[in-house]
Each structure stands twice: as structure tokens, then as C-alpha cells.
Amino acid sequence: MIARLVTALRREGLRFFTRRLAAAARRGAGYQRLVVFRATPSGGAEPQAAVRELSPAEATQLTTIPWDPATIEARHREGARLFAASDGTAHTSFGWVTDGRSMWVDETSCYLTSREPKIWIWDCVTPAEFRGRGQYPMLLRGILRQLGHSRAVIYCRAENRSSRRGIEKAGFAAGESIIRLRRRVWVRRRGTGDAVAVSDDPNIR
Length: 205
What we know:
Blueprint lengths: L1 H11 L2 H14 L2 E9 L11 E4 L1 H5 L8 H9 L3 E6 L4 E15 L4 E16 L9 H13 L4 E6 L3 H9 L2 E10 L2 E5 L8 E3 L6
Parallel strand pairs: 5-6
Antiparallel strand pairs: 1-6, 1-7, 2-3, 3-4, 4-5, 5-9, 7-8
């Protein structure tokens, strides 16, 4: 922990403090912004190392996985699928996938919805010991290679620069922003097509 803090201070300097102060101010004001990314046609085209879907039985046996067995089983019952990247000796990055017209987002306490079903990629985690090795974009490219890129969507907090870099390296391009200020939520649109909307009801577009 201390080593990572020292490394971050050396790399970012004064920005290390200003970014965290700004994030604290946004949280205090009840402000949150997510960026929605869509896979580009070239995303997932290159061959990747092992990325595959894990069954509930496999997932619950892993010691490096960040979710408890009850959470894993509940998500599978709800239709979510868990994918993992592997370097041949260990699972290095994990991500959930849900196929449908809507997706609940904890960060903004609302549903993201679309007219056509999307492949929503969410709650991706790379264990600390494997970060900085390109495992996250490898995972995303592997998911795209198996499920296709035409409907794939992923989102992250706007201030999460490392996650944004990994998403873009995997072949995604930024689209809409989902903004929450206290209890109000709205979409800042970018481009055309089947834009993502927000709703309190997953069945309402």
C-alpha cells in the first residue's frame, strides 16, 4: 500500500492531491458522472490469450476472485455471465456480462436502457498483483472476440483514468455521459444511433 502511494506521488506530483480533493468535492455535492463506451468494429479482432466463461462451480472455488459464493450464484441466477482472463497459471482479470435492454447501475442509482438489447460488460476487477500488465484490455478483447462487438457496451466513472485507458485499449470509444447531481439524473448525448437512456423502471425506454 505504501509503495503504491509513493509511486503515485512520484508519477502525479501535485495532481495526486488535487484530483482527490476534486473527487471528494464531487461526492460531497452528490455529483457523479459515468462515461458509456461502445465497442468499435476493430475491437477484439486480434487473437488473445485465454479468456473464457467461468461456471458458478468454477468461480466459487477460486481464491483470487473478489466476490463471495452467494454473490456469484445470485448473479448467475439473474442471467449474468462471468468471464476471466488467464496467463496460464492464474486468473488475472474478471468481468461480468449481461445481455438485455437494461442494466442497473449502482453509481447513479438508475437503469441504463436502450431500444435494442446490448451486451453490458460491468463490474470488472483485476487483482492488485496483476495490474499494470494489460490484463484488463486483454479480458475485454477476449469477451468481444467471443460475443461480438456490435452490441457491446461498458461504462466507468469519468475520473477513473486507468479504467478508461484499459477500455480504450480494448477497442472501445467513448459515447454518452450519465450525470447524477443529487437526485437528478440525465444523459449528455454524443453521436447518433441507439443512444442509452436512463430510467427508474427497466421496462421503460
